[in-house]
Amino acid sequence: MLIAAIPVFLMRNFEFAAAQAREQHDCIKLRNVYDSMCQSWTNQNSETQSHAESQNRSRVLTSHNPQRSLIAESIAYDKLWSDVISLQQRIERLEFRSEGICQFLYKGKCFWIEARFDGITCDQARDICSAYEAKLGNVYSENHYYMLLGWLRVLATDGNFQAWLGMTYHPQSRSVSLTDGSEAPFIKWRPGHPRNVVTSSCSMGLRASRKWRSPNQHLFHACANREELRGVICEK
Fold first, then answer.
1. Cis omega (within 30 of 0) on the bond before 194?
2. What is the pTM assigned to this prediction?
3. Tell me, what's the pLDDT at 1?
4. Which of 60, 77, 195, 206 is the most buried (most CB within 10 A)?
5. Residue 43 — φ and ψ, nearest 5°?
6. 20: Cβ–Cβ under 8 A, 6 or more apart, which residues?
7. Exposure of 113 in the CB half-sphere (CA atoms within 13 A)
8. Are strands 175-177 and 202-209 parallel, antiparallel or unpaired?
9. Is residue 88 a contact partner of residue 126, using CB atoms and an 8 Å limit?
10. Cα angle at 14 between 115 and 25, to 5 degrees?
11. Cα 156–chain centre separation
12. How far apart are CA 235 and CA 129, in angstroms?
């Protein structure tokens, strides 16, 4: 099974690299066209101003309106610049995906799920993400929470799926922090959580159900040292 998976993984990386190269080429071409048009526009604008200074504007031929022409060209340049920025953003997305196994982006951060159906501890989960120079994932908003649930739901073949997160529950203050130590902006606890536990901190996970309307989907804390879940959400 592993042998069969390797060519697929390599093929995905080759596809990403090829697409990235094509878009980088397109972006360079657009930049060159944009720079050339900007230079042309600057020269024409300068010539028009010089002409206006030497002659009365009322004598400009009615068959040609330099000002209207300049406005039209300015709109065209803005459109070109918009295309350049769009290509740059697509290149960044491809770079994220080629460096890891990115399933989706959220506010510039790459997320993917590593399934380990035999079960892994939180330390093992952290090592899996670290292999990609990534970290355990956070939940940044309600919208992000439901996006993650959607991806986990695909793996819930026997009814539910639970994956490690990088967030930490602090029993003494009953608060939750992200991997950078800041306060978690969104929490949706499982029924009965958070519990009163005698420990300084607890790791956290996310549970999804195969049935998207199921109420048994939530964040939870896992305080046992050797507790195992079936996957991990990585963030880069």
1. yes
2. 0.59
3. 41
4. 206
5. -65, -45
6. 91, 94, 95, 98
7. 24
8. unpaired
9. no
10. 130
11. 23
12. 8
DSSP string, the chain: -HHHHHHHHHHHHHHHHHHHHHHHHHHHHHHHHHHHHHHHHHHHHHHHHHHHHHS-GGGS-TT--HHHHHHHHHHHHHHHHHHHHHHHHHHHHHHHHHHS---EEETTEEEEEEEEEEEE-HHHHHHHHHTTT-EE----SHHHHHHHHHHHHHH-TTSEEEEEEEEEEETTTTEEE-TTSPBPS---BPTT-S---SSS-EEEEEEEESSTT-S--EEEEE-STT--EEEEEEE-
Domain ranges, ordered by start, for the chain = 2-52+64-99, 104-235
In angstroms, the CA 206 to CA 163 distance is 5
Longest dimension (CA), the chain: 88
Q: List the one residue out of 111, 108, 44, 98 whose CA is nearest residue 71.
A: 44
Give residue-wise pLDDT tens across range 40-67: 656 655 655 555 555 554 444 444 555 6
Residue whose token pair is 């009814």:
159
- By the 8 A CB rule, do 184 and 176 touch? yes
Mention the CATH class of domain 104-235: alpha beta
pLDDT digits (tens, 9 = 90+) for 139-182: 999 999 999 999 999 899 889 999 999 999 999 899 999 999 99
What does the alpha-carbon distance between residue 87 and residue 28 come to, in Å, rounded to a whole number?
10
Given a cut of 90, is residue 25 above it in pLDDT? no
